[in-house]
Write a structure and sequence with these properties.
The chain is mainly α. It has helices at about 5-70, 80-110, 110-140, 150-185, 200-210, and strands spanning about 185-190, 215-220. The protein is rod-shaped.
Length: about 220
């Protein structure tokens, strides 16, 4: 081999190595960038869920508290009832206006079942109890004192609403905790046909020899 041929081979090898190396570096950088963007997206999603949890709990609790206060002052005369009614209606307006953002957020992050629960269980019950309470308030303002039975029924309904809210908040908090765990520790994927893209070739080979295929899983970044 002549000197020129050796130089040509060396240059070709260097160029080829450079091209392949540059390709691999760019590919690694691209994958790293996409991974960073996914992580950023999930962190933003987690922050959004935190804000939603704070908003929905504070807004619902404020409306419930205002309703309890209004029910408590029914025997105290018109002036106290009117003040409590004004505060209740203020919280009612805040709750109703907030629902426009609550519904799409719940649907996006928790699914239709939770949206229907918010609408048909939480909001609908607020409406029912609110109507009963407003009826008693109108009676008081017209000079008719509510009976003990009516006041007891409203108090019982408000206690029931508090229980519904507690259960709903717990479900929302569970979803928030699951998302936080995914962001911090990654998401666990069970071995099944619809999730094979999350398994490496090595993982798939290992799955062929495991005795517990149904329990085989991997953890990947969220």
């Amino acid at each position: 081999m002549s000197i020129l041929s050796g130089v040509a081979v060396a240059l070709t090898g260097a160029i080829t190595t450079g091209i392949i190396g540059n390709y691999l570096v760019q590919r690694w950088q691209r994958r790293s960038w996409f991974a960073q963007q996914r992580q950023l997206f999930h962190e933003q999603e987690l922050a959004e869920l935190k804000r939603f949890y704070e908003q929905v709990t504070q807004t619902a609790e404020a409306r419930l508290f205002a309703m309890r206060q209004l029910a408590a002052v029914l025997p105290d005369g018109n002036a106290e009832v009117e003040r409590a009614r004004d505060e209740y209606r203020k919280q009612l307006t805040v709750w109703n206006s907030s629902l426009r953002s609550f519904f799409p957020t719940v649907t996006l992050h928790y699914g239709w079942s939770m949206t229907l629960r918010l609408e048909n269980e939480i909001h609908a019950n607020f409406v029912d109890v609110g109507r009963s309470l407003e009826r008693l308030v109108r009676g008081v303002l017209m000079g008719a004192m509510p009976s003990v039975a009516d006041r007891t029924a409203v108090a019982r309904a408000l206690n029931g609403q508090a229980g519904k809210l507690s259960s709903f908040f717990e479900a929302i908090a569970d979803g928030l905790e699951n998302k936080r765990d995914e962001v911090l520790n990654g998401k666990r994927h069970t071995y099944r046909s619809g999730a094979l893209n999350h398994f490496s070739t090595r993982d798939l080979i290992k799955a062929l020899f495991t005795s517990d295929v149904d329990g085989f899983n991997v953890v990947r970044p969220a």
